[in-house]
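Task: sequence design from structure.
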């Protein structure tokens, strides 16, 4: 499996999320979405690559707005696992 090591700038590890092992896990999410959320995804069904990009963009957004190098961050940065689980659970 691809290295999960954090990047020094706090951004997402893109290689990890684009690795075949990670994409296989996103494929399981894609299948679940297509099965349980037909009404929301039938016009534009998600792809495993698209879901991986969504997670990468969410992590990067969090780093840009809440990270240690953010100008005037509104509050402390949330743990990534909590942040992603809460957001994805709202969509699932």
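Answer:
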């Amino acid at each position: 499996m691809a290295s999960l090591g954090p990047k020094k700038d706090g951004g997402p590890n893109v290689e990890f999320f684009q690795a075949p092992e990670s994409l296989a896990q996103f494929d399981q999410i894609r299948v679940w979405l297509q099965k349980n959320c037909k009404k929301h995804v039938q016009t534009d069904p998600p792809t495993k690559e698209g879901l991986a990009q969504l997670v990468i963009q969410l992590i990067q957004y969090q780093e840009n707005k809440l990270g240690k190098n953010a100008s005037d961050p509104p509050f402390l940065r949330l743990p990534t696992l909590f942040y992603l689980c809460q957001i994805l659970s709202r969509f699932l």
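The chain has one domain: 14-66+76-89.
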